[in-house]
Amino acid sequence: MTGVEAPIGHLVSRLRETGGDGLLAVLAYGSRLVSASPDRHSAYDLVVVVEDYRAFYRALSDGGYTARNAGLLATVSRVLAPTVIAFWPAPPDGPLAKCLVLSRADFKRELGPRRLDHFCLGRIAHHISVVHARDPETAAWVEELVAGARRMVLDWTLPFLEGSFSVDDFCRRMLEISYAGEIRPERGGRVSAVYEAQRETLRGIYTPILEAGVASGVLERSNGEYRAAHPASTAAQLRLNAYFGISKARATTRWVKHMLTFDRWFPYIVRKVERRTGMTVEITPLERRFPFPLLLPKAFRVLRASGQGGSGSTTKTRAAAGRGRGAGGTRAPNHSGGDVR
Question: Of 1, 59, 308, 336, which is most buried with the most CB atoms under 10 A?
């Protein structure tokens, strides 16, 4: 765990104590890892790979780490993987982890060519750190899957690049595409901040991949820049747009699942929305008492408004909406019937 924050080490230690041999691996990612404008309230983002869903959630429940029913968590984990849970060993002042929980089989599938959507791949494409592996064999398995997932980045980024491009252009475009594939409570310009925070790491990851593309004939290199050896076909672009459209629909539907699995989900998302967008979200006493289902319509309005770039507004019964712009004002693939800019 060299090079990661001490709180991550504490969280992983508690996860290991709880999950035992059923905890296969833990990967850290996100703003805390890359120092992309986290604040003291920011959660630590972890991918948690387990041997068996039910056994892991039962251990969490027995340890007092979740108020959710272990059987319910295990059941919903088999739908729209991963499942997002809160792991907060010492509230309210201790570090909070937002954990994406996947079984061995689901982790392998979602980082491979038969993945069901872009959710996991879009995160693994960033800078990550493997902060726990059960044994050397598991560590090698995780590293192999991550490396394979990153090699596939060329397949879904190249068709949305025109003309010559540098390594930096490629990495930025990759982030724009991934961010456009989900509704996120983020202020405009978030892609640029995330890119700048991990630029050198991304260069180190993707320069060899682009060079491999040159060696295989997929890319051509001239004067230190790359370009596609052959333009993407219309059919390939249509397939990618369909893939990202399905992925965005699944990611949006997954928010309903988060409400069932993430302890104190609405206070968390309110805090994130206010931090990332400048929006103010008001919750009535009745909504605090009966958060589900009363807050469901408001939650989707907040996510929709924040995903469209709304900021500086107050969310009561309606959320301000505006047309957002991606980093640098460049076009992103058509994920939802229109260009994301």
Answer: 59
